[in-house]
Design goal:
With about 230 residues, this protein is α+β, with helices and mostly antiparallel strands. The protein has two domains: about 1-60 and about 110-190, Muramoyl-pentapeptide Carboxypeptidase, domain 2; about 60-110 and about 195-225, no CATH class. The protein is about 40% helix and about 10% strand. The chain contains nine helices and eight strands. The strands form three sheets. Strands 3-6-8-7 form a four-stranded antiparallel sheet. Strand 4 (about 80) and strand 5 form a beta hairpin. Helix 4 crosses helix 9 (about 210-225). The chain starts with a helix and ends with a helix.
Length: about 230
């Protein structure tokens, strides 16, 4: 069961957050039950301190992640560089495009969003207050950014509820994602199930864009972005 969970092949392990708290406003989001409970507890604590902590994205299936991947591969969604500037995919080789996409978007089958333990957060009230179109870039989560107050609160408090930031530092693979949080008690149990062998089989059985290039470089991808 854990092997299909980590690759996003099933949704049986997640629950609609709205079924736990209908007034939460997260009825389109899904997490594992324990992770959802911990998030709701953390959200209420943030609200008591005047901070709005909302989920922007939670569980994603393999198919949902593939949709993001395929559209970036085909130039239908922007690919950003390290300075948040849009890259012209026509100037890249397939291998260069592969790594450019992986900087900010997970390969289908590898996204932690498959697990039902991870989610992206946003300060929705601050965004609505100034009608700010969220780009989901790191500058928006810096102290003077639109979600700066939320970031400050989460850095001080998220660990008390079991959450950590898996992409808090740039190790040369996935870029820094200050909006991404993971429920550690469950995520740490699932992580060992994501193996190179499982990933090879999963990609071979898929029809993702750039499949030939992905398979050719999969050992390097796995080592650089997921280990």
């Amino acid at each position: 069961m854990n092997t299909v969970i980590v690759c996003g092949i099933t949704q049986d392990h997640v629950i609609n957050i709205g079924t736990i708290d209908p007034n939460n406003g997260s009825d389109r989001h899904y997490l594992q039950f324990e992770a959802a409970q911990a998030f709701l507890t953390m959200q209420r604590a943030a609200a008591l301190d005047g901070v709005d902590c909302q989920i922007l994205s939670s569980y994603r299936s393999f198919a949902q992640q593939q949709s993001i991947w395929d559209r970036k591969w085909h130039g239908q969604l922007p690919i950003l560089d390290n300075n948040d500037a849009v890259i012209n995919p026509g100037t890249l080789s397939n291998e260069e495009k592969l790594h450019a996409i992986l900087r900010w978007s997970a390969l289908p089958g590898t996204s932690r969003h498959h697990w039902g333990t991870d989610f992206d957060v946003v300060d929705r009230q601050s965004i609505l207050k100034i009608n700010h179109p969220l780009k989901l870039v790191a500058s928006e989560y810096e102290p003077d950014g639109i979600c700066g107050e939320l970031t400050t609160w989460l850095k001080a408090n998220a660990s008390h509820f079991g959450f950590e930031q898996p992409y808090a530092h740039d190790n040369g693979g996935i870029g820094v994602e200050p909006w991404h949080y993971s429920y550690t008690p469950l995520a740490h149990k699932l992580q060992p199930y994501l193996t190179l062998e499982l990933l090879i089989t999963t990609i071979q059985n898929s029809d993702i864009a750039g499949k030939e290039t992905v398979l050719m470089h999969l050992p390097t991808i796995f080592e650089r972005y997921y280990q």
